[in-house]
Amino acid sequence: AELGIPVISHASTDPGLSDRIANPTFYRTIPSDNTAALAITQFFIQFNWTSTIIIYQNDEFGIGGANSISEAFNNNNNNLTITEMIVFDTTTLSIRGDLKNLLTSSPTRIVILWAEASHTSLILQNALDCDVLGPQFTWILSSNIPLDSFDKTSYPKLTGLLTVEPVVGNIINAP
Fold it and tell me: Roughly how many angstroms between the first and final C-alpha of the chain, as a whole number?
């Protein structure tokens, strides 16, 4: 910034980098997590959903995404709530706690999974093993993953997966 050299990111979604005063030479080609969180909030409003469980990976990406969704839900006057925040530990590559118990004991059946694609596949395989996917639960993913990596007999349980992911647009640094 001191030298005026622009930095362009095709992958960084951290909302803090959108601050033009703090980062005057930073440009991104995909929207911040705040944009995805707003889209998810609008999705909930459209379908009259009121609560969710968030599963997120315990790093800057996951925590930032979970915080963006939480903030978007809190800023909404439609009483959207997060009933549970579940951590996927990127060191042990496992959910902290018993995934089946955490999900089935919750009153909501909508799960937002905020994780990178490689972790998303591991978490979904765990969810398949615990039988907490479709049709009992609707999952909203932040990463696009190839479903052909799962056993074909599992395909009916993968019904109801939705993906909200950033895409490259024609506007740079839009809010």
Answer: 20
Q: What is the maximum span of the chain, computed from C-alpha positions, in angstroms?
A: 57
- Surface-to-core class of residue 17, CB atoms within 10 Å of its CB (0-12 exposed, 13-18 middle, 19+ buried): middle
Block residue for tokens 């790093």: 59
Close Cβ partners of 35 (under 8 Å, ≥ 6 residues apart): 166, 175
Rounded Cα–Cα distance for residues 130 and 124 (Å):
10
**pLDDT surpassing 90 at residue 165:** no
Both tokens of residue 172?
A: 């740079």
Question: Tokens for 33?
Answer: 């997590």
Residue at 137: amino acid letter: F
Asked, as a colleague might, if the bond just before 135 is cis with ω within 30 of 0, I would say yes
Which structure tokens are listed for 73? 């839900």
Strands 51-57 and 110-114: parallel
Tokens (6 digits) for 165: 């992911």
Least confidently predicted of 59-63, 110-114, 120-124, 162-166: 162-166
Whole-number Cα distances in Å, 48 to 44, 59, 106, 159, 160:
6, 31, 18, 20, 16
Find, among 18, 47, 21, the residue nearest to 35 by Cα: 18
Q: Indicate the helix (H) or strand (E) that contains 14.
A: none
